[in-house]
Design goal:
Elements lengths: L6 H4 L3 H6 L12 H26 L20
Length: 77
């Protein structure tokens, strides 16, 4: 890797160095895609909250209860 050159070696003075914009650039403005990302994030958070509300109704029980098969009734007994 090369070593960075000093300002004195290039012949640049402090006045000309201050006039240059440097590495700091203006941040790009948000566009419609950033807004859509925010809307999608909000929808996912809202969906998770609604899922928690539904699971709260069932006291967070996710196991299905075993069902007994219905009794066989035949018309031709």
């Amino acid at each position: 890797m090369s070593r960075p050159r000093s300002a004195a070696a290039r012949g640049a003075s402090g006045a000309t160095r201050a006039a240059r914009p440097g590495v700091f650039v203006q941040a790009p403005r948000s566009d419609i895609y950033v807004a859509m990302l925010g809307i999608a994030l909000g929808a996912m958070v809202l969906g998770c909250l609604l899922l928690l509300l539904v699971l709260n109704r069932y006291e967070f029980k996710t196991k299905a209860a075993a069902l007994t098969p219905p009794a066989r009734t035949s018309l031709w007994a």
